[in-house]
Amino acid sequence: MNYKRLTVLFGFFFFVAILGQAQFIPDDDTTATNEPAKPSVDWKEKLVFGGNFGFVSGQNLTEAEVSPMIGYRVDKRLLLGDYLIFQYYGYRDYISQFSTTIYGTRPFAQYLLFNNINQLFSDDDSYSLGFYGRIESELLNLDRRYFGNPYLIGSGTRMWIETLLVGVGLQEDYGGTGLNISILWDVSQNIYYPYANPQIRFGFYF
Predict the structure, then answer these.
(1) Which of the residue ranges 33-42, 63-72, 170-179, 197-206 would you say has the lowest mean pLDDT?
(2) Is 39 domain-assigned?
(3) What confidence tens digit (pLDDT) does each residue in 149-189 have?
(4) Residue 36 maps to a domain
(5) What domain count does the chain have?
(6) Is the pTM of this model over 0.85?
């Protein structure tokens, strides 16, 4: 891994997150300093649930994914959470064919940089369109026979790999429930990672 480049990427992500404190369009919760403090919110009300579900079928490749998510909204901008990953992966061509399962976990941090972008071009306040930065550390369990070197020293036919992904996305929020789309890049460049850059993910939350 090129640690120098990775450090630069982290620094850039942190710098952009700090700039995001100045919101593109002001939030509705801006209050005067002389107003009384709001009561604290119960931690259960800050929990977020959702996930990624997908199915792709082509001439050579079939993929299906069910990845539920649980998160904790630290504040109105920062969301921390984790996915449980369950995937089916099938491949066939004129020479060979195989199918296997992939499972693992995907802890993430997501920071809302700009909110209410939709108000730039619409008076519809029934939803909020936001732009966020996102970082993930994906830990996957793969079948060594298909995604790794079967001759590597180790027990069993499966192996764990860890990959760092960084990207951005859009979320369409309807009062705490919504949809999002993320575009992510593998910056660790793990040679056994089964997916190409960039990755595009669709998800939902409530």
Answers:
(1) 33-42
(2) no
(3) 655 555 568 889 999 999 999 999 998 899 999 999 999 98
(4) no
(5) 1
(6) no
Asked whether residue 30 is assigned to any structural domain, the reply reads: no
Residue 70: both structure tokens together: 């649980």
pLDDT band at residue 203 under the 50/70/90 scheme: very high
Q: Which domain holds residue 191?
A: 3-20+45-205
Residue 47, pLDDT above cutoff 90: yes
CB atoms within 10 A of CB 160: 11
Domain at 120, CATH number: 2.40.160.20
Residue 34, domain member (yes or no): no
